[in-house]
Amino acid sequence: MKKSLLALPLLVIVCLALFGCGATIPTIIIHQIPWPDDETISYAVQDSQGTELGTLNMTIRREGDIYLMTSCMVMGNSTDEITIAMNADDLKPISETRTINVPPGGALPQGLYEVRATYEDSNKVTIEADLPDNQHQGPYAFDIPADSYANDQVWYLFRTLPFAEGYAGRYTNIIVWTNYQTPAATITIVGNETVETPVGSFNCHKLELSVLNITLHFWCSVDPPHYLVKYQKADNILLLTEHPESAIVWLYATIHVGFLRLLFPEPHRLGHRPGFYLRRCVACLFRPMAEEERPAHTNPHRHISLAVRL
To answer: Which pLDDT band holds residue 286 (cuts at 50, 70, 90)?
Structure first.
């Protein structure tokens, strides 16, 4: 079983033999880089009934000529951490490290697994792995097509699409866990839907990914920076719970001669209306201090509350 982590299955050979059969669909291109140089996003992992099963936190950060993408999924006692370095101009993968902590009682033996992949000149990948009980596999080198992207890049790769109605693009999906596979994949924009999340409603492009005879769906916000708002594979769902605009911290300063009190409300109370609140800040919105907030010995006209976006 452990050898299967990096085995080259028959499916890969078939996929490579048939490479080019979807040539009528153009290869995907990087149409835009919509995210800032440093962005952190969080998701809830849910089942189809909305029961939370875990969390996923992702960060992408520019470091010179590369983007460094990191993600960490926590589900119960299991963790799955991924780091991918990619070229900043075309997002071609440079390296990938995936570290999985498998708890007891699962399909895989308990322990820590680390899989590392290095990409060379967009046409070769070298993979090796450290397994529980001090076992090691690799390095193994494989040729890959020029249109290859790492499997876990899709969280950001799909945000770069042109988002034209009916758009379709193809690429080769490089999977390094648990078996090495290189299936052809097709991504299609199939419509628009409104998605409700804990941080508000989003008008989204709905994307459909076909890979390995499986259909998966992604919802990216229509407005830049085209957040990945929702992802669904069968009964497994990722739902956006935090993004840079939702993580606004409000500073309520109640000002009185002689003292300053700072109040920090919970960020989720702000909802998905950062523009509205920013305009209120610019307009220097003041409100009188509520009666119950005011010390008995003070003059109510000498108290104000000031909202400031940090």
So the answer is: very low
The span from the CA of 237 to the CA of 223, in Å, is 22
Which of 183, 126, 128, 115 is CA-nearest to residue 151?
183
Q: Which pLDDT tens digit goes with each residue over 228-241?
A: 999 999 999 999 99
| Number of residues that make up the chain | 310
Q: Which residues of 86-107 are buried (b: 16+ CB within 10 A; e: fewer)?
A: beeeebbbbbbbbbbebeeeee
Which structural domain, as residue segments, surrounds residue 303? 250-309
Residue 114 CB partners (closer than 8 Å, separation 6+) = 97, 98, 99, 100, 129, 130
**pLDDT value at position 106?**
84
**What is the rounded CA–CA span in Å between residue 113 and residue 111?**
7
Same domain, 89 and 110: yes
Whether 283 and 227 map to the same domain: the answer is: no
pTM (predicted TM-score): 0.74
How do residues 102-114 score in pLDDT, each as one tens digit? 999 888 899 999 9
Q: Are 173 and 303 found together in one domain?
A: no
Going by C-alpha positions, the residue among 125, 129, 127, 124 that lies closest to residue 113 is 129
- Identify whether the C-beta of residue 280 lies closer than 8 Å to the C-beta of residue 287: no
